[in-house]
Write a sequence for this structure.
């Protein structure tokens, strides 16, 4: 029996083509199913996301509105703070000037009284010292006056005896 | 009139007592003593007033500095 290899090759090619066609058909079938599921998923996600986006848009609008209000509140707070700062500065100036004067006056009077007292005490001490020195000098003069005649009489008596 | 005489007498007696306490016991030298004591008192008072003015100015500057530090931003 003589084998015609060309027929074998054609048969193998036909078999191969049939197998490839079946494979492609199977892949296309699976791909179609996949596309169908993807389409369903996309539709479902779209159906779910659109309301969420709508809600997010609403939320963002609300947030923007609140931010605008907060901005107004902040501007008002800043203006209030500036006004309060100005008022505090004015009150501080109005109060601090008399307080400063009064405190300075008190400190000045205290220092003046202390200085006057110290000057008087020093002067009194010096005067008392001078008076004591005068008293000592006077006592010494008196003692000299009492002892002087005896000094004069004693040599005279000694001369008479000799 | 009686009050005036009484007041003048009390003032004179006080001045005399002060002069005696200050060591001026001779009444004939009281006019000079009164003048010298007055001059001394005026000088001491002037020194005390000058010291008080310096202390007051110093205290005012201290308060001003404290106020400036207290109202400084970030203090």
């Amino acid at each position: 029996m003589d084998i015609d290899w060309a027929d074998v090759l054609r048969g193998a090619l036909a078999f191969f083509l049939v197998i490839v066609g079946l494979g492609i058909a199977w892949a296309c079938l699976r791909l179609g199913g996949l596309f169908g599921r993807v389409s369903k998923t996309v539709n479902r996600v779209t159906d779910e996301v659109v309301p969420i986006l709508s809600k997010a848009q609403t939320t963002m609008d609300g947030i923007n509105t609140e931010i605008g209000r907060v901005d107004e509140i902040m501007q008002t707070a800043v203006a209030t703070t500036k006004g309060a700062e100005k008022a505090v500065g004015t009150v501080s100036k109005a109060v601090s000037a008399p307080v400063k004067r009064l405190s300075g006056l008190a400190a000045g009077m205290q220092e003046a009284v202390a200085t006057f007292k110290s000057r008087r005490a020093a002067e009194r001490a010096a005067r008392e010292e001078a008076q004591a020195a005068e008293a000592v000098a006077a006592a010494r003069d008196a003692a000299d006056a009492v002892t002087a005649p005896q000094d004069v009489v004693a040599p005279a008596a000694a001369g008479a005896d000799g | 009139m009686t009050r005036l005489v009484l007041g003048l007498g009390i003032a004179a007696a006080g001045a005399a007592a002060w002069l005696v306490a200050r060591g001026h016991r001779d009444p004939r030298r009281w006019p000079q003593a009164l003048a010298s004591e007055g001059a001394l008192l005026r000088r001491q008072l002037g020194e005390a007033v000058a010291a008080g003015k310096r202390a007051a100015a110093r205290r005012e500057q201290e308060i001003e500095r404290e106020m400036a530090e207290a109202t400084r931003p970030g203090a």
Q: What stands out?
A: The CA atoms of residues 33 and 50 of chain A lie 25 Å apart. Chain A touches chain B through 24 residues (CB under 8 Å). The mean pLDDT of chain A is 88.
